[in-house]
Write a structure and sequence with these properties.
Elements: H1 5-11, E1 18-20, E2 28-30, E3 33-37, E4 43-45, E5 47-49, E6 56-60, E7 70-72, E8 77-83, E9 88-91, E10 105-113, E11 119-126, E12 133-141, E13 144-151, E14 156-162, E15 172-178, E16 190-194, E17 197-198, E18 201-204, E19 219-220, E20 223-225, E21 228-230, E22 234-238, E23 245-247, H2 253-268, E24 271-273, E25 278-280
Antiparallel strand pairs: 1-5, 1-23, 2-3, 3-4, 4-6, 6-9, 7-8, 8-22, 9-19, 10-15, 10-22, 10-23, 11-12, 12-13, 13-14, 14-18, 15-16, 16-17, 20-21, 24-25
Helix pairs in contact: 1-2
Length: 282
Amino acid sequence: MPDYSLMADILGAGGAAWSLIPIGVPSFTFRGQVAGENAARTTVTTIGAGGGEGLVFTYSPAPPWDKERYFRGRGKVPIVPMNGTTEYFDTPDADFWTIIEPTAFSIGGVFDQAGVGNFYPLGKDKVSGAPTQREWQLAFISGKPRLLLLDDSTGADASRLADAAVIANTRQHVAFSYNGVGGANAGDGILYYRNGAVAASTVTNNASYVAMENKTSPVGSYITISGAVNGRYSGLMYGGLGGLWLSRVLLTAAQIAAITSIEQAAVRRRFFDLRSRGPVRQ
């Protein structure tokens, strides 16, 4: 089993609450927590701390999906192809996922998306239908990574959008951090990281934005519009040490660089290709 200890120590630095979604990983135990997929491959349970552990995501529909998962690297990182039309995962509302300023948070993972459309790998956002339940979303908008903060009462939002789209069908690490400043300049408190380094991006602020609120929308790889699932992630979703993570703390540039190194090393290490019966460099 991969060693999650270094990742856990960074995400939980200073006693922070954190969660990692080990999508594609068979059931395992980490620091006394039973996590990973159930035997039927219908759910995956998070590892974490401070309420981020033991959260159960349900797959829809149950795998096998259009393409079966596979594993890469000495880190045994699962790679789960998602078709962007019928496949997604979600979990019910829980206090861990609600972030109200001045609480800070950071979020990221390894992605390899198909095309440069609009995809939502993780969000807590019921966009329309009475009542709306909007909190936040990690998205790719025309292929550009974005973190969007939502004030449901005022209908205002704040965000940071990457200046450049990611390269389609290419593995890359994407992360954002938010310092929890709130208010009219909340977007200024967001930083965008690509492959472990701060990257060019554009802020959008709104004078009406006050703060995120405690709403009841589920958390999933989509957003909800008029009761329907929209924007399902399309491409390769990484699990294990490459899985989606959220930490309720402002991670530093050095910490995000370290997480990136851990995740990318787990994926890139040589693995044994059963077709060629030899090691392949990634």
